[in-house]
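Can't paste images in this forum, so I'm doing it all in text. The chain is below; anyone willing to post the predicted structure tokens underneath?
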Amino acid sequence: MLHDPDLRTALLQSLRLAAIAVLVTVPLGVALALGLTRWRGRTASASRVVSLATLVTPEIVMGTALLLVIVHVLRFIPLGTPAQAIGHITFSIAFVLIIVRGRLLAIGPEYEEAARDLGASRLQAIRLALLPMLVPAVVASAIIVFAISMDDFVISAFLSSGTSTDTVPVRIYAAGRTSPTPALNALATLTLVITIVIALVLFLVWRAVRRARGQTGSTVGEFATLDSDAVS
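Text version of the structure:
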């Protein structure tokens, strides 16, 4: 596998797209969760529903729509890594939104209000009081986004510009129609190991942060809070 340039390129492309997705999607998702949580008004509920549309949209529909938009509307975005990165970000941002927003609803507005009462500005209250408490949700979001990006096939295949931008799932699918080679099996195994190791490291960081800050409560409770808020 290490001596096959096509397989090495596929692995590097998968890791590149996953890194871009994590670095861009997580901050955008956190900002979107903050905005939607604070938004009040008649259009707030509709906006929250629309923001989660990618969770229920079939991935093949998402891939086809992104391809048509990039080819016919956003022609300045080339197919390949830029288009694939945009597709991965668009598809995975809803997962960050629901995780971070669930954490925000579980925390409540009291800590931020207390920081404002002590003289902090709105930005300082978010940066010094709220964001440190969101670290577990941010880490969990990064794990989910990385795993989704590494596993994605449809969007990566639709927005690829050729073999130079094929990812590991695309390469496995292409080889599966003929006969998988031992090198391809090794590539699939290495991809699985890398994904598990990175997810485990981030999970250990998440647990260490929770213990260091003495935070309690479960993820199930946070999602229950999110669900009850959505119903109300």
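The first helix runs from residue 5 to 38. The two ends are 54 Å apart (CA to CA).
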